[in-house]
Design a protein that fits this description.
- The chain has twelve helices and twelve strands.
- With 394 residues, it is α+β, with helices and mostly antiparallel strands.
- It folds into two domains: 229 residues, 2-Layer Sandwich (Ribosomal Protein S5, domain 2), CATH 3.30.230; 153 residues, GHMP kinase, C-terminal domain (Alpha-Beta Plaits).
- The strands form two sheets. Strands 1, 2, 3, 4, 5, 6, 7 and 12 form an eight-stranded mixed beta sheet that branches. The chain has a four-stranded antiparallel beta sheet with strand order 9-10-8-11.
- The longest helix has 30 residues.
- It is globular, with a radius of gyration of 22 Å.
- About 2% of the residues have low confidence.
- It comes from Camponotus floridanus.
- GO terms for molecular function: ATP binding; mevalonate kinase activity.
- This is Mevalonate kinase.
- One of its GO terms (cellular component) is cytosol.
- Keywords: ATP-binding, Coiled coil, Cytoplasm, Kinase, Magnesium, Nucleotide-binding, Transferase.
Length: 394
């Protein structure tokens, strides 16, 4: 029986996330806390689809015939191609009518699962047979680190890869297949995220590394660039809060209404920081590609990017888009020569970029001890890691 394992990264914003609606530069990176999907094809006689998503407390056995009946609905093909929003409503009704969810996280997870399965199957000529999918994540759910998109990326890659296996032997994903995975994930993003975010998470979770983008005239006209920077180690500190993205957007709008000039100046400042970060990342990439790397230059570039991210965080504080706990983490990091920045809008996590040099190890250890003493948990991970990937095949 076919078995394989797929994983996809999370996402953090390095800078510019609050300025995207204003046509400014945004820099986002893949996060090394990955979502992992394990797939196993089941014997035909079982006649079930087994779904295990323990992080949202889902364990279901769905009769395969229920899925077959769904695909026989009138206008099924036209809906998935021409009316995805209407089709989403059908999927929502399906999981609600059958009593498959209790919490909002379960509802969203199952909507993504069935939406992608039922959209990808006809387009990729996937023969849906009994299978078991087990999906876990190291990302905190609903924490603003791209967990729904990482989840969707694993599922889209799973169904596409299974389709490829049914046709011939397959190993890994081609550039064309990655493009299709990203498009499938984007179609689910449009339904599951607020459009004001002008989201590019599907690019980050599919391709990994760093994505720099700006929306020229709304979310449908995006200029983006993938920067192949090497993995960079970070501390991810949990500020023990949950920020509301909608509330943050409202706060920014109210502040702009009171003092448009001051807000515009700060947004322009963040945009300049973002553009400078893009240039620094290009230099880091170029330095890593050399046979003889200039370690002194690399250390200088890391320090430079730390300073830029901290400047972005200071601007967020001036815009009332920070939080005392986040400010405390950044202040503690500063005591040890490090710089912190909020990991994105709607998240209570702070990223602290770590230099490559080992001479900072003692200070890093003391920083973690201080953060823990102040009640903030810390994990070590990376940014600019690989995108969706096939980890195991049996």
């Amino acid at each position: 029986m076919t078995t394989f394992q797929i994983s996809a990264p999370g996402r953090v914003f390095l800078c510019g996330e609050h300025t995207v609606m204003h046509g400014k530069q945004v820099v986002a990176a893949s996060l090394g806390l990955r979502t992992t999907l394990k797939f196993r094809q089941l014997p035909l006689q079982l006649g079930i689809i087994k779904i295990d998503f323990p992080d949202v407390d889902i364990s279901l056995d769905i009769p395969l015939q229920m899925i077959v009946n769904f695909t026989l609905c009138k206008n099924y093909s036209s809906m998935i191609n021409d009316y995805p929003y209407i089709f989403l409503g059908c999927v929502r009704n399906f999981i609600t009518f059958n009593g498959l969810w209790r919490t909002n996280e379960q509802r969203v997870g199952l909507q993504i699962f069935f939406f992608l399965l039922l959209v990808i199957a006809p387009k990729e000529e996937l023969d849906i047979q009994p299978f078991h999918v087990h999906l876990t994540t190291k990302l905190k759910m609903s924490a603003g680190l791209g967990s729904p998109t990482s989840f969707a990326t694993c599922l889209a890659a799973c169904f596409l890869y299974w389709s490829c296996l049914q046709k011939d032997d397959h190993n890994g994903f081609t550039p064309e297949e990655l493009k299709r995975i990203s498009e499938y994930v984007m179609s689910s993003e449009e339904e599951y995220t607020e459009t004001y975010e002008f989201n590019q998470d599907h690019m980050i979770c599919t391709y990994g590394r760093v994505t720099a983008y700006k929306c020229i005239k709304g979310p449908l006209n995006v200029q983006s660039e993938i920067i192949n920077t090497p993995e960079m180690y970070i501390f991810l500190a949990d500020a023990k809060i949950c920020l509301d993205k909608k509330q943050q957007m409202l706060q920014l709008a109210v502040k702009a209404n009171r003092d448009r000039i001051a807000v515009d100046d700060l947004l322009d400042k963040i945009n300049n920081i973002s553009e400078e970060v893009v240039q620094i990342l290009h230099k880091i990439r170029e330095n890593h590609q050399r046979t003889n790397r200039n370690l002194q230059l690399l250390e200088s570039l890391y320090k430079n990017i730390q300073d830029k991210l901290f400047s972005n965080q200071n601007s967020l504080r001036e815009l009332d888009l920070s939080h005392p706990n986040i400010d405390s983490i950044c202040s503690i990091a500063g005591n040890y020569g490090f710089k912190g920045k909020c990991a994105g809008n709607g998240t209570g996590d702070v990223i602290i970029l770590l230099p490559e040099s080992t001479e900072y190890n003692n200070r890093a250890f003391n920083l973690v001890s201080d953060l823990l003493w102040n009640g903030f948990s810390v994990s070590t991970t990376t940014v600019s890691c690989t995108g969706v990937r096939l980890d195991q095949v049996h």
